[in-house]
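Q: I'm building a small set of examples for a reading group on sequence design. Run inverse folding on the following structure and report the sequence directly after it, with nothing in between.
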């Protein structure tokens, strides 16, 4: 495929968005869900946009341009003005249409500084359509990558970086908060690489037993340790010729870090108890939500890992993507595909900070759809209580101030000691968080590595590798490949089940 396949499709090529950002209007919600994600991008840097039922024209890349068109949106326009300091002023029309800005009904002009627009300004029209005002520094282009969803500046840049680095063999370090899609990015890099014909090998470093981590990664000779009755193949050998994804790299035991450095520098490693070295040409992708520069992490190894760094932004910094993510995630779950989402809950979804990012949005959306199918009226505050806010300016219900966390949402659980937690506590936390470890750990007030220890010691919770292929296949098929429902029945963590099922080609 030649370079023209990924060239700009917007008429904005003459502009330089790096010099001065473009003001974009993205349809985050519309009664016709096919319209969600359509954009209008203003080419005037000090201008007025009149937003009404018939103007401006919104479109997806390569698609047909259409106005909002919905009857709940007034013919009288909402005026959006941008001055030469990039201050945005929104003036509602003198009509009966209800206009809400960041969740507050407005009848007078409201203004926002440039940095506030960078957070995304949610404008609700007639309680039917939601438009996000935000800056764009990347122009829309045809560069679809499965799983990497979004129309934001950040999503466009992420897809560009993935396609750029995928064709190389360089190590990649993925940095981002939990739930931002680091594993999805790793899978995309592998699928676009020349190594795509071989399976991606995924390892969660936080889940490795510290005493056996070297054997897990590099293999072991027969008799190398108690119980080693035969030669053991490690992950580096398994991934030779393919890609090795080491998630939670910040949790790598300190004794293992020099071994990783050696295999990165030379391609050589020595299995535990072996008499000679072996070689692996596995391409390494690592990921973490930790700051490796401020923890006790081998800095020489870090320099090797950061050959190419991709930062995955939190969802609160790409609010214009929430609508297209909701549509995508609903299609993935297969739950309530014909269910109409009430506008009130949609508005709450758009305004929340999502400290658990895309993963949390997925969990909450699934619960909302199940509740709606049961005839209930779910409220967001009751569904997000186990997550702690990551940032003071994450959410927003103020009309002209940076977003703030909603006071109705409860803070994360206080820190607890492991001996204070019973198996029943652990099971309940896993059930309430769809068998996702991070959410359960936050609900219990413990760290993720501590949660792994509790799971390892639990008498009823199993690792996917401990479950027979026949049982795994039967349960996955019973639940139509829904990993969360299958994890609940099998009593195994969702993330581990998904990775293992992919590794053995059940998904």
């Amino acid at each position: 495929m030649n370079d023209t396949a990924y060239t700009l499709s917007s008429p904005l090529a003459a502009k330089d968005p790096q010099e001065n950002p473009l003001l974009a209007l993205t349809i985050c919600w519309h009664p016709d869900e096919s319209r969600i994600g359509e954009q209008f991008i203003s080419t005037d840097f000090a201008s007025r946009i009149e937003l009404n039922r018939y103007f401006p024209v919104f479109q997806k890349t390569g698609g047909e341009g259409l106005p909002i068109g919905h009857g709940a949106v007034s013919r009288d326009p909402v005026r959006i003005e941008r001055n030469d300091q990039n201050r945005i002023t929104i003036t509602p029309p003198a009509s009966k249409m209800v206009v809400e800005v960041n969740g507050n009904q407005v009848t007078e002009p409201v203004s926002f500084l440039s940095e506030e627009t960078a957070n995304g300004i949610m404008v609700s029209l007639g309680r039917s359509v939601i438009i996000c005002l935000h800056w764009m520094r990347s122009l829309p282009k045809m560069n679809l990558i499965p799983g990497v969803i979004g129309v934001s500046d950040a999503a466009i840049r992420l897809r560009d970086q993935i396609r750029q680095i995928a064709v190389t063999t360089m190590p990649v370090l993925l940095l981002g908060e939990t739930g931002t899609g680091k594993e999805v990015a790793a899978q995309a890099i592998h699928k676009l690489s020349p190594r795509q014909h071989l399976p991606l090998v995924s390892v969660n470093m936080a889940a490795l037993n510290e005493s056996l981590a070297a054997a897990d990664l590099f293999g072991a000779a027969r008799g190398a340790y108690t119980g080693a009755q035969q030669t053991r193949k490690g992950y580096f050998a398994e991934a030779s010729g393919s890609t090795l994804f080491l998630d939670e790299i910040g949790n790598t035991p300190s004794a293992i870090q020099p071994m990783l450095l050696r295999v990165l520098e030379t391609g050589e490693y020595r299995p535990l108890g072996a008499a000679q070295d072996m070689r692996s040409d596995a391409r390494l992708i690592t990921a973490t939500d930790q700051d490796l520069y401020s923890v006790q992490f081998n800095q020489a190894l870090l320099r090797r890992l950061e050959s190419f760094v991709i930062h995955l932004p939190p969802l609160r910094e790409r609010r214009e993507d929430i609508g297209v993510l909701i549509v995508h995630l609903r299609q993935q779950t297969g739950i309530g595909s014909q269910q109409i989402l009430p506008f009130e809950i949609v508005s709450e979804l758009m305004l929340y900070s999502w400290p658990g990012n895309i993963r949390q949005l997925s969990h909450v959306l699934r619960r909302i759809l199940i509740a709606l199918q049961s005839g209930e009226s779910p409220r967001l505050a009751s569904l997000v209580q186990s997550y702690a806010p990551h940032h003071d300016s994450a959410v927003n219900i103020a009309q002209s101030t940076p977003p703030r966390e909603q006071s109705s949402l409860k803070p994360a659980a206080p820190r607890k000691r492991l001996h204070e937690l019973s198996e029943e506590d652990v099971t309940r936390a896993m059930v309430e968080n769809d068998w996702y470890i991070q959410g359960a750990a936050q609900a219990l007030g413990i760290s993720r590595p501590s949660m792994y220890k509790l799971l390892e010691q639990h008498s009823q919770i199993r690792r996917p590798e401990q479950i027979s292929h026949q049982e795994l296949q039967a349960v996955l098929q019973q639940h139509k490949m829904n990993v969360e429902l299958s994890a609940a029945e099998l009593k195994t963590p969702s993330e581990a089940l998904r990775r293992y099922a992919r590794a053995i080609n059940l998904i």
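Confidence is low (pLDDT under 50) at residues 1-15, 388-413.
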